[in-house]
Automatic annotation (TrEMBL):
Residues 105-116 have a biased composition (Low complexity). This is Extensin family protein. Residues 36-46, 58-75 have a biased composition (Pro residues). Residues 135-315 form the Extensin-like C-terminal domain. It comes from Paracoccus broussonetiae. Residues 1-19 form the signal peptide.
């Protein structure tokens, strides 16, 4: 019995010893920790989870990456062509620019150069086209004028002088003659005829005895020369067929009204001269007479010179 008791005690003793020795217990736990490394692999599974998570994350990124990749190729492809094109353009533009500049520069001076030296004569710039010329002749005919078409007139003394399509006007209105006739441009003759019809003839009807206008005593007609009465050397409108000078008006009763300085005469002759001189500015762009300068004391200078803004010089 004692032996059994002893055994029991012995058996029991270790138990209390283990119970007392809590420290040794860790030993078996230390032994467990050895397998613990095995459980370490279990932490690996969480790693797998991470990987899964990563994979899950990857898949999303993967598709976007694919999407990105897929779009990039097209974008790249689209970008490439335009890039190539622009590259080609700049390459072409650079060579084309210098090329274009060269031709543009060269022709410009080349064109400007010939134009200046060419310098068509002044009279040629006044040449009427067929329609304008024909219309003018028709106007003269309808007013009852008598005239002849003449060949072009030029002057070796000055290439600017001349009339490209002149007419020899002998009668601007029916029954009104120009002594000796006068060479001029058709438009000059047309203005002269209208002025005589609208103002001179009616004015003459108010003179004593109501004389009928039958003729004009001309001064200068066509003449290649510079202007008279001033220091300038500009070409006279007479040298282009644009001017006509009147020294006197002749009437059917044999009387005349000669252009002369008339001031404070207090008679109808003075009134007539003032009237025709003033109304001439309605038909001609230049009217000069007595008082304008010494050169115009004995005649009326009338011309149709075109000035900027339609300016008229009436003195
Ligand atoms: Zn004149």
């Amino acid at each position: 019995m004692r032996a059994l008791v002893a055994l029991l005690i012995a058996a029991l003793l270790p138990a209390p010893v283990f119970a007392q020795d809590d420290r040794p217990l860790p030993r078996p736990e230390e032994a467990r920790p050895e397998p613990a490394p095995k459980p370490v692999p279990p932490p690996a599974p969480p790693a797998d989870r991470d990987e899964k998570a990563k994979e899950q994350a990857d898949p999303p990124p993967a598709p976007p990456s694919e999407a990105k990749e897929s779009p990039p190729p097209p974008v790249a492809s689209e970008a490439t062509p335009p890039r190539d094109a622009p590259k080609a353009d700049p390459a072409q533009s650079t060579p084309s620019d210098p090329a274009s500049k060269d031709p543009a520069d060269t022709p410009a001076p080349a064109e400007a150069a010939p134009v200046k030296p060419a310098g068509p004569p002044l009279h040629a710039s006044l040449r009427e086209d067929d329609f304008t010329y024909s219309a003018c002749l028709l106007d003269l005919t309808l007013m009852g004028a008598s005239y002849e078409e003449r060949p072009a007139v030029t002057d070796s003394a000055d290439p600017d002088c001349g009339i490209d399509r002149p007419i020899q006007l002998t009668s601007p209105l029916p029954g009104v003659e120009i002594d000796g006739g006068a060479l001029m441009r058709c438009d000059t003759a047309r203005h002269l005829a209208r002025w005589l019809r609208d103002f001179v003839r009616p004015s003459a009807a108010l003179l004593p005895g109501q004389p009928r206008l039958v003729g004009l005593v001309p001064g200068s007609t066509y003449q290649c020369r510079a202007t008279v009465g001033n220091a300038s050397e500009k070409l006279s409108e007479h040298a282009l067929g644009n001017a006509f000078d009147i020294a006197a008006f002749r009437f059917a009763d044999g009387s005349k009204v000669e252009i002369a300085p008339r001031q404070d005469d207090g008679d109808l002759t003075e009134a007539f001269q003032h009237a025709v001189r003033g109304t001439a500015c309605l038909h001609f762009s230049t009217v000069l007479g007595p008082g304008a300068n010494a050169a115009h004391d004995n005649h009326l200078h009338l011309d149709i010179k075109a000035r900027k803004g339609g300016f008229r010089l009436c003195q």
